[in-house]
């Protein structure tokens, strides 16, 4: 459960998020909104990558301002651009990197690497140079690298922007199969039709908040 209590974020004079109070408890939550409306900033608040200018964000009761490290163990973050996430030259090394940092044993790392590569049909890419993967494969590697660390909550910032239809569907299936709570920032309205809750942000405020059939048409109207 993530709680935002009267959260505002400003950059200089500009208020990007304005006095948001929300309880995020649903299993699948989407954040939608126009370019520059504050969605990425919102996502970054959820694992302490960004801090509120005022107000507070609590993840399972932990304040992101004071317990950033603990919060980041609980909340995995998938960046919009996988090149920002992939840090090691070879696929299996990249998957191991985050687990090593969290102190997983060698055996555990090997087992989890096998599992995740098999799950996403990437076993033959184990020793492949990460920078030579296609955009979709990189996106899958970036997501896999977060999932192997077994976070309680997964936040994804536009996970499908670089992908073709096949890989979009692959990601959608991968997300649907996760046990964890998933919060997805996206412009891809098809991806979120079966989500539990959609929050539309407009100019830093909540414009609509509810189920996909309630929120998506209202958002489409706002954008037309
Ligand atoms: N670190 C920062 N410093 C200054 N301004 C910032 C910073 N991060 C974001 N902004 C500004 O905040 C506003 C909201 O940005 P944000 O990335 O949250 O929007 P977004 O809804 O995710 O947009 P998009 O759909 O284009 O990715 C933008 O005007 C952006 O320029």
From TrEMBL:
<dbReference type="InterPro" id="IPR050095">
    <property type="entry name" value="ECF_ABC_transporter_ATP-bd"/>
</dbReference>
<dbReference type="InterPro" id="IPR003439">
    <property type="entry name" value="ABC_transporter-like_ATP-bd"/>
</dbReference>
<comment type="similarity">
    <text>Belongs to the ABC transporter superfamily.</text>
</comment>
<dbReference type="InterPro" id="IPR027417">
    <property type="entry name" value="P-loop_NTPase"/>
</dbReference>
<feature type="domain" description="ABC transporter">
    <location>
        <begin position="2"/>
        <end position="222"/>
    </location>
</feature>
<keyword id="KW-0813">Transport</keyword>
<dbReference type="InterPro" id="IPR015856">
    <property type="entry name" value="ABC_transpr_CbiO/EcfA_su"/>
</dbReference>
<keyword id="KW-0547">Nucleotide-binding</keyword>
<keyword id="KW-0067">ATP-binding</keyword>
<dbReference type="GO" id="GO:0005524">
    <property type="term" value="F:ATP binding"/>
</dbReference>
<dbReference type="InterPro" id="IPR017871">
    <property type="entry name" value="ABC_transporter-like_CS"/>
</dbReference>
<protein>
    <submittedName>
        <fullName>Biotin transport system ATP-binding protein</fullName>
    </submittedName>
</protein>
<dbReference type="InterPro" id="IPR003593">
    <property type="entry name" value="AAA+_ATPase"/>
</dbReference>
<dbReference type="Pfam" id="PF00005">
    <property type="entry name" value="ABC_tran"/>
</dbReference>
């Amino acid at each position: 459960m993530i709680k935002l209590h009267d959260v505002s974020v400003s950059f200089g004079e500009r208020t990007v998020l304005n006095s948001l109070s929300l309880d995020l408890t649903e299993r699948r939550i989407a954040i939608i909104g126009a370019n520059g409306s504050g969605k990425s900033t919102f996502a970054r608040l959820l694992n302490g990558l960004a801090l509120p200018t005022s107000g507070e964000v609590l993840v399972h009761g932990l304040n992101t301002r004071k317990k950033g490290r603990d919060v980041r163990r609980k909340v995995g973050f998938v960046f919009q651009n996988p090149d920002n996430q992939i840090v090691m030259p070879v696929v299996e090394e990249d998957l191991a990197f985050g687990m090593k940092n969290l102190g997983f044993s060698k055996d555990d790392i090997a087992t989890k690497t096998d599992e995740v590569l098999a799950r996403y049909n990437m076993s033959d890419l184990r020793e492949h140079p990460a920078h030579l993967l296609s955009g979709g494969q990189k996106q899958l590697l970036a997501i896999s690298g977060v999932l192997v660390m077994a976070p309680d909550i997964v936040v994804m910032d536009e996970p499908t922007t670089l992908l073709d239809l096949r890989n979009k569907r692959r990601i959608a299936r991968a997300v649907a199969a996760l046990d964890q709570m998933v919060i997805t920032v996206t412009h891809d309205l098809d991806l979120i039709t079966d989500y539990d809750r959609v929050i539309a942000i407009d100019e830093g405020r909540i414009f609509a908040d509810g189920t996909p059939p309630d929120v998506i048409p209202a958002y489409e109207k706002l954008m037309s």
